[in-house]
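Replying to the earlier thread about multi-chain prediction with a worked example.

Input:
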Amino acid sequence: MLKTQELTLNMGPVHPSTHGVYRCVLTLDGEYVRNAVNHIGYLHRGLEKLAESRTYSQFIPYTDRLDYCSGLANELAYVMAVEKLMGITEEIPERAQYLRVICAELQRLASHGIFVGSFALDTAGMTAFFYAFRERDRVLELITRIGGNRLTPNYMRIGGVARDLEEDFFKELKQLMDDYDAAIDEYDGILTGNEIFQSRTKGVSIVSKEMALDYGFTGPNLRASGVDYDMRRDEPYGIYDRFKFEVPIGETGDTFDRYVLRVKEMRESVKIIKQALEQIPEGPVMAKVPKVIKPPVGEVFHCIENPKGHLGFHIVSDGSTKPYRTRIYSPTFVMLSAFPEMAKGTHIMDAVLILASIDIVLGEVDR
Amino acid sequence: MFGQGLIKGLSITLKHLFDKKLTEEYPEVKPNLPDSFKGSFMLKVPKCIACGLCANACPNNVIKIESEKDENNKKKLTGYKMMAERCLYCGFCVEACPTKALLWTKEFENAVYIREMVNLDLFSSYVPSPDDEKPAKPKKQDEETAQAS
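Result:
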């Protein structure tokens, strides 16, 4: 009589796909996952508490460190929240608005580039990883021109952006956008159409519409489950109502859909940047804001469509130069909590894939 | 037909086999960095008026300024230390400088063997150059800043 027993296995913190910041305790029955328990907090830096001892503008560089794959978009979320609190949302100059959209969409391309690359790597597709990172590196070079750093640019300011960008930058951006469609076709050719890749990802960890809504999924993962909701289109912030773009929707909500949807979103981001480049006016990039920012007493919540979902900031002001309380609503924290249910019953090799398909960044989960 | 996607993928990689190589030959060939690049810091000491705006703007208390008043009751810089181990490289200090004395350099190989060596002493490491001798006068806009803070 063969005797079997369940095996407890630590996935992480030193696992190639969790690289030291996340641990998941898997209970295995043979090669099947029976139970999974999340352990987070390895990258906790107490950013919410740090915000209380920094002035409003001094906290902007810290938001870069939330989701370090999309620094500019995090800054935008924070800066827009403070502007809403101060009531100066209408005063942001036109050119700054367009620059913000360009920055946010560039960052979306970089973030989804990481997703495509690392997702390919988790299915052991080394070539696609390099192809995805090739374009991402060109985007990061442009971000270096914007803010001086690759991942933590610190470019957004309360009331506009830090500085105007030179003509050279726009020329290079235009060139990149012209090349991007061909690059995305390559991802499609090498990954999406690949039969081995499809058989690894199709039908794995299906998240239904109801489950996605129950867990509070946002962003690409929500849309992959078939819910047609994109903040950029449905509750436009900034000047997003001026651009024409489609919101791709997934059908089944499996890992393959979550991947395909992000590739489709990259195409839409390219469209938005192209439109923004055509429409961008000349003018100032900074509104008239006092040097010392003292918002009125009150509180505000503002969230935007980040590459990974809705990133929100809840700021409570007591009328002084520092916020009384800052709360960060991070999308991947919410979505990571669904991982145990998504991984239950799957093969152990798929568990890594499911984790990658959520597109977690632990900087944001732990804050 | 099964395998069509595989063949398509292979044809893409085959095409790239004969492409120009993209790899940067880093230690031999230095990267071409943009002007906005945030590498290390440089202080033009004669231009500095020891106003302390950079230290105020810093989110992390990185900058330590020492100054003394001379016979005309004017502030004179006697020390400028940067605890770069705590630095976020956000650039608020460079932005705040009214006389453009504090600048970014493109030097990015900042790794050292001993932790204390990360910190910068910009006052004593200053190398005089003839362009820096005339202290630029702060503009009007910056006087407003000083009043506001």
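The longest helix of chain A spans residues 94-122.

Feel free to reuse this layout for your own posts.
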